[in-house]
């Protein structure tokens, strides 16, 4: 049987049953079969603003999108199983990206098995509803996000060879399964240790000799599978002063990759921008626009494209008052989008890391939690699916750029 995800858009729209999970290169694809058809999406009657954010983004030649999850058996999450949430995604977005469903912890339960069931849920849903799909991520380069088996793996007598085999097999399995469906991948995610200002050591890098050996192999393997695909290095740079050292480290990493001929096409800028302090002069958090533009100039000067891959706003130090807080978040968002959209000729797709507050990861991320215990309001829609001033700010920025 083939090891590709083979639900064509024509068949998906016709309601054809999806093929069962099949083996990838002789490895088990898991023991949980996917649903026989794409999840149905019931309209809820929500009147979302027009034009959509996707329509406005398309005027600039790009997609607007969001992360989405798969939570089988649950409809109370930001997932393809939640009809109300998918109604919002369809109304506003033209692209989705898996939140966790493509990461090693999910798809690689052991060295010899793959389980694509949850990723297949998202792939089927995106096809059935005509949304483009990004890949995130082929390698999250952090030990705390490796599966336990990989952190403790015995690489044997030839560790470099065995590590390379594990990595290339993983990339081959994922890209082959979604070949023709996903053309832009975050190949490597977060390879910099911001405390050490250097690349992160992992079990793979110790086996292969250095983190750079792992990163380079990941990109070269992805290029073999996707000769025309967009290969992205993704990281959490931002324009706040506390990110400046990290930004410089990312520049050095990219410069090294380009000088070694590594096939990297773009930088994915996560853009989890922060209001952790308040600047009395502006009433919002301090940011360094001049330094940020210099950073973007250096990235694009290497010939690399830009993407906004995971946008949201951390509002920890803003007032409790909802109207005031939403206004400041919107203003900060507009400032950031205006700068990024000044790089229109280099900027590709724009994705949120969730569209409504209660499903956004910041609610559970300790450094982003508010001292008053209130919900972080860092996405375009409230937890009741109501558009916020942030949504207006994004729409106005997109419209002005177009």
List the helices and strands and how they pair.
Layout (H helix, E strand, L loop, with lengths): L8 H5 L39 H6 L5 E5 L14 H10 L2 E4 L5 H4 L9 H12 L3 E9 L7 H4 L7 H19 L4 E8 L2 E2 L4 E2 L3 H6 L2 H15 L4 E6 L8 H16 L6 E4 L2 E3 L14 H13 L3 E10 L7 H20 L5 E6 L36 H13 L1
Parallel strand pairs: 1-2, 1-11, 2-3, 3-4, 4-7, 7-8, 8-10, 9-10, 10-11
Antiparallel strand pairs: 5-6
Helix pairs in contact: 7-9, 10-11, 12-13
Name the features:
402 residues, TIM Barrel, 8-stranded parallel barrel, two-stranded antiparallel ribbon, 15% strand, globular
Please outline the major beta sheet.
Answer: 8 strands, parallel, barrel
Report the C-alpha radius of gyration, rounded.
Answer: 21 Å
Poorly predicted ranges: 7-45
The count of DSSP E runs of length 2 or more, i.e. the number of strands, is: 11
- Characterize the overall form: globular
CATH homology superfamily: Glycosidases
Q: Largest beta sheet: what is the strand line-up?
A: 1-2-3-4-7-8-10-11
- Which topology does CATH recognise? TIM Barrel
CATH class: Alpha Beta
Mean residue pLDDT: 89
Our count of domains comes out at: 1
Percentage of residues in strands = 5-15%
**Structural class of the secondary elements?**
alpha/beta
Helix fraction by DSSP (H/I, runs of at least 4): 25-40%
Q: Any idea what the CATH architecture is? A: Alpha-Beta Barrel
């Amino acid at each position: 049987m083939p090891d590709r995800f083979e639900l064509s858009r024509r068949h998906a729209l016709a309601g054809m049953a999806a093929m069962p999970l099949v083996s990838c290169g002789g490895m088990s694809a898991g023991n949980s079969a996917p649903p026989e058809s794409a999840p149905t999406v019931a309209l809820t009657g929500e009147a979302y603003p027009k034009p959509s954010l996707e329509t406005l983004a398309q005027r600039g030649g790009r997609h607007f999108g969001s992360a989405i999850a798969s939570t089988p058996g649950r409809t109370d999450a930001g997932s393809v199983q939640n009809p109300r949430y998918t109604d919002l995604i369809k109304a506003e977005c033209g692209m989705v990206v898996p939140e966790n469903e493509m990461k090693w912890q999910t798809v690689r339960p052991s060295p010899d098995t793959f389980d694509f069931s949850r990723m297949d849920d998202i792939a089927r849903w995106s096809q059935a509803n005509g949304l483009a799909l990004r890949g995130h991520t082929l390698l999250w380069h952090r030990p705390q996000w490796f599966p336990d088996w990989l952190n403790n793996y015995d690489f044997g007598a030839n560790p470099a060879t065995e590590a390379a085999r594990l990595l290339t097999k993983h990339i081959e399995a994922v890209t082959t399964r979604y070949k023709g469906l996903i053309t832009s991948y975050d190949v490597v995610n977060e390879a910099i240790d911001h405390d050490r200002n250097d690349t992160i050591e992992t079990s793979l890098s110790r086996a292969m000799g250095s983190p750079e050996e792992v990163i380079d192999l990941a990109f070269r393997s992805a290029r073999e599978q996707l000769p025309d695909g967009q290969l992205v290095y993704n990281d959490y740079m931002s324009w706040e002063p506390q990110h400046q050292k990290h930004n410089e480290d990312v520049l050095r990493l990219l410069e090294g990759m380009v000088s070694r001929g590594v096939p990297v096409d773009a930088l994915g800028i996560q853009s989890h921008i922060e209001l952790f302090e308040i600047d009395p002069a502006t009433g919002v958090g301090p940011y360094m626009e001049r330094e940020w533009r210099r950073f973007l100039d250096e990235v694009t000067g290497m010939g690399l494209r830009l993407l906004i891959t995971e946008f949201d706003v951390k509002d920890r130090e803003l007032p409790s008052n909802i109207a005031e807080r939403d206004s400041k978040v919107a203003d900060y968002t507009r400032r950031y989008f205006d700068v990024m959209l000044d790089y229109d000729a280099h900027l590709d797709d724009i994705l949120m890391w969730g569209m409504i507050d209660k499903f956004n990861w910041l609610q559970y991320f300790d450094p982003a939690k508010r001292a008053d215990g209130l919900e972080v309001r860092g996405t375009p829609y409230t937890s009741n699916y109501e558009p916020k001033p942030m949504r207006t700010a994004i729409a106005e920025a997109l419209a002005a750029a177009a």
